[in-house]
Amino acid sequence: MFTFVLRRLLIAIPTLLVISFVIFFILDSAPNDPTGNLPLTIPPEVRQKIRDSLGLDQPMYVRYVKWLRQFLIYEPLNLLEENTGIKIGDSEGRLRIVSYATRSPVMELIAERMPQTLWVVGVAYLLGIIISIPIGVISAYRQYSIFDQVGTFVSLIGFSLPTFFTGLLMIIIFGVKLRWFPSVYDTTLVVKDWKTFVLQVKQMIMPVTVLTFFNASRLTRFLRSSMLDNLNMDYVRTARAKGQKEQVVVWGHVLRNSLIPVVTLIALGIPGIFGGAIITEQIFRVNGLGQLLIIAIQGADIPLVQTLTFIFAVLIVFFNIIADVAYGFLDPRIRYS
């Protein structure tokens, strides 16, 4: 197992380097100008000085190496110093990845938005997994029953309807008509007592419900299909012939094997938590990473877009490795050498 993980990590290094170069090259080649949003009264020579101060006068490969060094070396060292207080080298002279728009370190902007995204998108994803597993198992075990038909119908609706439609529908019904929940997410709210905690829960209900409905519907369909494939396998008949209880057969054997393809879907969906639900965050005005990415793209903030995109790529590769390792725990026939 250790050899397999080490080998996958070693393979991931050149893979991520290639991905980082592709991301940097594509965004650098895009026709974006960081001075495009400045007033038209600013003279061209001043605009050129601003571009030079941002390092845009240097060749692309020089800027790529500088950005990669900042991302892989300088930013982790800064993060280590901030959390431990241990000084490593010249921290004051260490260059950081800086946003074009705000001139603030990109990692600080990401750290400010991360809690909001994890509160909303992370909770919704976790609830989607918890809800989808029992519904998917029962729907497959009681195929064509009323429970299965209702569950299939609801999951098809949840999987087919886009989140911007269900989000706007919930805002109209529960936010405007009934006034049960706030239509706009207040990111400035600080939970310090029971009253603010209730307000936080109330403003989370609608965006979390929209995302949970979508995630649970998608996972339920995959798990039900995988369960139906395994319920008729020979090992299931053998387990029943040995006199094992039906609960043990279904939840212990069939579910364990059925989770193998679903684990990939779950693992690859986790980076989306950190990426934020872009559409849902825009609808409910959640000040998360998804909204940050949209603002960065609209403002041609290339360093912020590059860093966010590469972080998502790192998370996808990392959780791919976790999914491969999880296969060995779910299926004893899989051996890593």
Which labels suit this protein?
mainly alpha; MetI-like fold; 12 helices; 337 residues
Describe the protein's architecture and organization.
This protein is mainly alpha-helical and 337 residues long. The chain has a domain at 111-330: MetI-like fold (Orthogonal Bundle), CATH 1.10.3720.10. Helices cover 74% and strands 0% of the residues. The chain has 12 helices and no strands. The model has no long low-confidence stretch (mean pLDDT 80).
Fill in the CATH topology of the domain at 111-330. MetI-like fold
- The pLDDT mean sits at 80
Query: Level of helix content?
Result: over 70%
H/E topology pattern: HHHHHHHHHHHH
Number of helical runs?
A: 12
> For this structure, what is the CATH homologous superfamily of the domain at 111-330?
MetI-like
Number of strands: 0
Please give the CATH architecture of the domain at 111-330: Orthogonal Bundle
Distance linking N and C termini: 7 Å
Reported for the largest beta sheet, the result is: none
| Radius of gyration, in angstroms, nearest whole number | 24 Å
Low-confidence stretches: none
**Would you tell me the structural class of the helices and strands?**
mainly alpha
Q: Give the overall shape, derived from the CA principal axes.
A: globular
Oligomer: single chain
The percent range for strand residues is: under 5%
The CATH class of the domain at 111-330 is Mainly Alpha
Topology at a glance:
Layout: H1 2-29, H2 44-53, H3 60-84, H4 106-141, H5 146-160, H6 163-177, H7 194-231, H8 234-241, H9 246-275, H10 278-284, H11 289-298, H12 302-330
Helix pairs in contact: 1-12, 4-5, 4-7, 4-9, 5-7, 6-7, 6-10, 7-9, 9-12, 10-11
